[in-house]
Write a structure and sequence with these properties.
By secondary structure, the protein is of the alpha+beta class. It is built from four helices and six strands, in the order H-H-E-E-E-E-H-E-E-H.
Amino acid sequence: MNSSLRLQAGRLLSLLAVVLLLTCTAQAREKTPDLGQLMEKSGLKSQALGEAGFLVRYETESGPDLDVLVVYWDETKEQILIFTTVVDREPGAEFSHKLLQKAMELNNDHPFAKFVLDPKYGDLDCQTELDLAGLTPKALAWHINWVASVGEKARGIFKDL
């Protein structure tokens, strides 16, 4: 009889744990901030791109303006991708071995931004991915500025590769 009570108590405890987990997950989703509100409070001058995301343009001394895009990374709108194109070539263009090697080296040097090749479009992007949950406007602005800074410096590095 004792084992029967233990079994029932164990099942009840398991059920309560599942209910608690589902409740916490639902509350976390409710607390995921809206990207538009974060951008508005970030202090950055941005342009809305409809439902897709936002554009932040930086004037540079080294060449053309640098556009940083902030877009939803997944359908749930719980993750965002912040990126800028560093190298823009013709779609299908091949990248040199030196460029690939340099991109890998820079990936080791920058913990919050990575260089990603997209041969289909001929792009080399500097990007970072973030969860919206817990993200503050100040942190969002920091990450956008970081991607812009690393991306602009990388333009000069990749220019002749």
